[in-house]
Amino acid sequence: MKKITPWLAAVATSVTLFLGFSGLQGTKPVQAAVPENTTTYQNLQQQDYQPGTAAYQVLNNDQPETITAQSFTSSRIDYHDLDQYNRAQTATAYLTSNNLGKSEGRAAQIFKPTGWHNQPKQVNGERVFPVNRGHLIAYTCTFNLNQAGQPEPGALGSIDNPKNLFTQTAFSNQKVMTINEQAVRDALAAGKQVIYQVTPVYQGSDLMAKGVWVQAISSDGAMHFNRYLYNVQPGLRFDYQTGRSQIDAAMTVPTPPSAVHRQATRLNLFSSHHRRVTNRHHRVRHQF
């Protein structure tokens, strides 16, 4: 009996450790891969937008590459530190319906991300501000999380967080990014958990991203996408090394098809209403 007792104890210990580990697997999110270290990212760095082609491309049949469907017990956003050039890096959000929100007044945006040059230009007879402060994780999906991305009841969203902002063209932000953000919002509103990862894609030491890699998947896998959005603006050509732009009539960029553009229209209607309410109550004007 003395000979088998240690053996039984070892087996019991192994089983206990296994069960404990299995239990943790169901509650702690699996760490997302680092997009900047992938072959996909390296390939995207080398791509240049060709005028007249689609404003975004679908990658890997719209199946995410660096995040996986999983459940989690609490929401959070993993922000990466700014890099050596002070540029925003990947943000990975673990979101629930608790993170959806809108407020009657948004704080003014002061931070200027790298490559920020927003002097208005006349494009096709219209006065255009070339760029916006693009949010990696949409402001309306960051409620009840603090600036560090940790749970904080009552927190009003990430509006001027340097780790969540990059210089994005007005077109890419308002006509393309919104399509994907709305898909995330719709899934959250339906009660799904969503993992949403956004990666600005820079070439070398460029201060402005050439594009943004967006991936998302719901915990049940029903909603998912994997896309690369070109950071371009109709009628303007950008020097991504500096972020400066010049008028170029040859730079044509088609608006995404109406079938998906309707989602962006719904968001724009909300944004217009929000601006009216904000201006009426606070006399504050905002840029996206």
Set out the fold topology.
Elements: H1 5-25, H2 39-45, E1 56-58, E2 76-79, E3 91-95, E4 121-123, E5 126-128, E6 131-135, E7 165-169, H3 170-189, E8 194-201, E9 211-218, E10 224-230, E11 236-239, E12 244-247, H4 258-282
Antiparallel strand pairs: 1-10, 2-3, 3-8, 4-5, 6-7, 8-9, 9-10, 11-12
Helix pairs in contact: 3-4
Keywords, separated by commas or semicolons:
288 residues; alpha+beta; Extracellular Endonuclease, Chain A; two-stranded antiparallel ribbon; globular; disordered N terminus; disordered C terminus
If you had to describe this structure to a student in words, what would you say it looks like?
Helix content is 25%, strand content 20%. Helix 3 (170-189) crosses helix 4 (258-282). A hairpin with a 2-residue loop joins strand 4 and strand 5. The chain is an alpha+beta fold. The chain has a single domain, classed as Extracellular Endonuclease, Chain A, CATH 3.40.570. The longest helix has 25 residues, at 258-282. It has a 6-stranded antiparallel sheet with strand order 1-10-9-8-3-2. Strands 4-5 form a two-stranded antiparallel sheet. Residues 1-27 and 258-288 have low confidence and may be disordered.
